[in-house]
# Entry
Amino acid sequence: MKKIFGIVGHPVKQSLSPAMHNAAFKSEGIDAEYKIFDIDPSDEENLANFCYETDLNNIAGFSVTMPYKQEIMKYMEEYDLLARTVGSVNTVENVDSKLNGYNTDATGAIQALQEKTTINKEKILILGAGGAARAIGYSLKEFGADVYIFNRTKSKSIELAKEFDLETIEFTQIADADFDIIINTTPVGMLPDSGSSLLHAEQMKGVKVVMDIITHPLETQLLKEAKKAGAETITGARMLLHQACGQFEIWFGKSAPIEVMETALYEELRNKD
Ligand code: ATR
# Structure
């Protein structure tokens, strides 16, 4: 019988994940379909029912996105180390009617960075202190980077830095701090607010690589400013692609067809423009 996969979130109809995963299933000859599960957060029971009914609906695994990456954890039997450490699950596998949680966001971000730069010993600034910043900050530190956090709400950056032994920085010190890499994990610059950027070219002089995890638009104002400053840029699509490949590998125990998924992703991005 055809296996069902999908993405759980709200709102989720703009998701780029179905295009990538369905293309992968087709090219690998896997009898499966990847759907959208838009779950209304106004009633807590909705997510619980979805999890309890996975077998009934033949669901073999699913991706998890906003606003459920933390809440989904209470329905998991087990987690991988990263999901447990950062408190966030973006991938679920249904194994013999038990749901296991994983986090492929951070490895997705690391692999996206590694396409353009080394990480070990680099001085890295993360903008934001939410769920994505936690996962990425923790993993970069594990990789031996020197990680700094800047966040609008200072208390949150201090808390995050303390938990994972990172540093914090004041906004006015960023320009003179000689960062090698800057990563934006805030929604600043996301459509419809695409003219905004937390940093401008003058604050990024000498920075080697700037990555934004936003996918709409693909080239954010921050990345435009980074180019003006002479930095290399990485779009949110690269992290999205690598985290999806990580999910495929968890579900099927083999390497993902990355070129097929990449082509499907960029085609979908063009269609949604
Ligand atoms: P995610 O799970 O995707 O990381 P999140 O947990 O909601 O999302 O975190 C969003 C981050 O973006 C937070 O660090 C938030 O800053 P606050 O802690 O001050 O709320 C940051 N953020 C959101 N909107 C912002 C804005 N307009 N300017 C600066 N930072 C912003």
In short: The two ends are 36 Å apart (CA to CA). The chain has two domains: 3-103+238-272, 106-234. The first strand starts at residue 3 and ends at 9.
